[in-house]
Amino acid sequence: MKEPCLKCIDLVIQELINTVRQTGLFTPDLAFEAIVKKQVIKLKDPCLKCVDLVVTELAALIRKCTEKLGSYPRLREETERIVTTYVRERDGKTKDQVLLLIDIELSYINTNHEDFIGFANAQQRTAANITKKRVMPNQVIRRGWLTINISIMKGGSKDYWFVLTAESLSWYKDEEEKEKKYMLPLDNLKLS
């Protein structure tokens, strides 16, 4: 048994954990967190239903397996009873663990994850893009003739003058680059 002082400290720590809210610095984090929490809460019923369906399926499987012990009725009944009881006991514990997992997910929504484009990531990306644009303007990486093979086109293939930049791949009718045939945008092409 813990000393009264240690028990009091544990209670204070638990209360702080339950009451202190970890929030992002910006409102979009709060909005994102509210939306995600509503969606995570909606997972409770389907998860519990899934556990019920698994238990039902296991019970049917147990019955089917114990049918093979038909020539030993007492052994069949006892085996079915023991295994079914074990599965039913685990049913409650499994539901408790599923609910605990959902509560854990609700307790902290990670808005700094790389899949979430929050303000911090957007700000970093914008700063990086501005730096890149200052350092490397839309320079031509390569120019030259390019043969495009398309069976739909008459003759099957055609030569075009192309210009590759960090921003786009463009092709023209000829080297004069006056008549642009097509431009394919490339978002900050990186050469490695």
Can you describe this structure in just a few lines?
The protein is of the alpha+beta class.
Task: Give structural notes.
- Residues 139-192 form the PH domain.
- This protein has 192 residues and is of the alpha+beta class.
- The chain has two domains: 25-118, no CATH class; 130-185, Pleckstrin-homology domain (PH domain)/Phosphotyrosine-binding domain (PTB) (PH-domain like, Roll), CATH 2.30.29.
- It has helices at 4-19, 27-41, 44-66, 73-107, 119-135; strands at 140-149, 157-165, 168-172, 180-185.
- A four-stranded antiparallel β-sheet has the order 1-2-3-4, with no helix packed on it.
- A hairpin with a 2-residue loop joins strand 2 (157-165) and strand 3.
- Sheet with the most strands, sense and barrel status: 4 strands, antiparallel
Radius of gyration: 32 Å
Distance between the termini: 62 Å
- The ordered H/E elements are HHHHHEEEE
Strand order of the largest sheet: 1-2-3-4
Strand content: 15-25%
Q: How many strands appear in the DSSP assignment?
A: 4
Please tell me the total number of domains: 2
Uncertain segments of ≥5 residues (pLDDT<50)?
Answer: none
Structural class: alpha+beta
Shape: elongated
Q: What's the rounded overall pLDDT mean?
A: 77
Tally of DSSP helical segments: 5
Provide the helix percentage.
55-70%
Keywords: Endocytosis
Protein name: PH domain-containing protein
Pfam families: Dynamin_M (PF01031)
Domain PH: 139-192
